[in-house]
Amino acid sequence: MTPQLPPTLERVARSNPVRPDDGRGLTPDAQAALTRILATDAQPRKRLAARRSRRVLMVSIAALLLVAVGGGLAATDPFGIFRNPNPGSALYGVDSSRHVTPPAAYWISCPRTTGTGFRCGTNMSGVRYQLLDHVESNGGNQLTRASLKAAIRQAHARGTISAAMANRFNRDLAAVSDSFLGALRTMFRYETLGTDPSRIPPPGVPAVIVCVPAGHGLSCKDLNGDANAAIGSGIYTAVPQRNWRPAPPQRPDNSWALEVAILGHPPTATEYRLIADLVMGSGSTSSGTNSGHVQRVPAPPQSR
Amino acid sequence: MNAERDAVARFSEMYGALYGRIHAYAQRRVGAEAADEVAAETFLVAWRRLDAVPSDPLPWLYGVARNVVLRHHAGHARQAAARDALELERAAPEPAGGGDDAALWEAWQQLSQTDREVLSLVAWEELPVADAASALGCSAPVFSVRLHRARKRLERLLKQPAAATSRISELSEAS
To answer: pTM score, two decimals?
Structure first.
């Protein structure tokens, strides 16, 4: 308890719902997590790929389907489905064939933030951004029929999925078309990233930008809608300013109408179940990820 | 080799000393179920950027944990138009205490997320203003102003009936 607090803050402090347990870092679970974290140094490439794949699996089935069926329109994007409709969030695709040197600058500023590309740097004035992450390979291109079969076999051999689950997985895999698996691969290229959901920057200032080294500075663009972010690119988030405004209510994805329009039919029950099983099965069987905890399986969209 | 050993030793010491603080922070914001994951993700970032971790790492770690929580909520928001994130927030433990704190909790719920974050960094994380400002990525003077306003809004809510003040926070934010 901090003794110098004013009475109101002291009252808040007394109501602390979760008091820190200083010995928690020494518990077996926490020590196991520590071991996993320290182990990431030994195999950085493999580990990073696993971590991003894991993150992809957190995306909802609705979002997955949106991107899966939208993949066919990636070149033109006439409906704007490859941009997140919510200010402050970004939907982007990873181009695994392109690699850049990861920028290391933690704070950068951008004199201009509009247009298809703009320059930013550490010694510039303008909108301030903070390094959040780097674009990493998400392993989406490994989602082939053969690799999925192998993954099912291995997961079953390790005992992480039941025989019944493996059988159903294999049955559904055999029932879906190659074109659907192609859509799955497209789907797994895409990721969503969000910033502070309560406040958003003014128009013309992207909440999240992606930057690559260019000369003495960085070449940047809005991350939202970038379908081909190179691996290693820096992901920067705008630093909140006084002119930021409260975010409007979140807009739901209108994916269902698009699915029907593009595919000519909603995903079949088998296709839908395969995606659900893929998310659930992979989420519960992935090993060597950053936290070692099973992801909460996303709820299926209510419209189905 | 020595440098690697030093890095492991430094990180392990930081982890052992501060894991409980970061875990408690995470538990308040995402609930017990996801707190382990948020804490692990936070320390993974610290491990990967150990060279950037300052000598007093706690404010820096809170800043990272905050980003991890925001991304966690954003992922859920995308999954179900923020419904899941809101449910998780509600699932977080309520402030402890008796009837007096029930009034506080009611007022607390009416504060904006920004106000709650500012207040909790000082009252729950017990951070000095400069460190709390660092965790939020703003200057100490700006944080002081925010803290002052948030405290006043909370005091106003505590004095007034809930029905009459249900939108004070929103109106204050908008003005």
So the answer is: 0.44
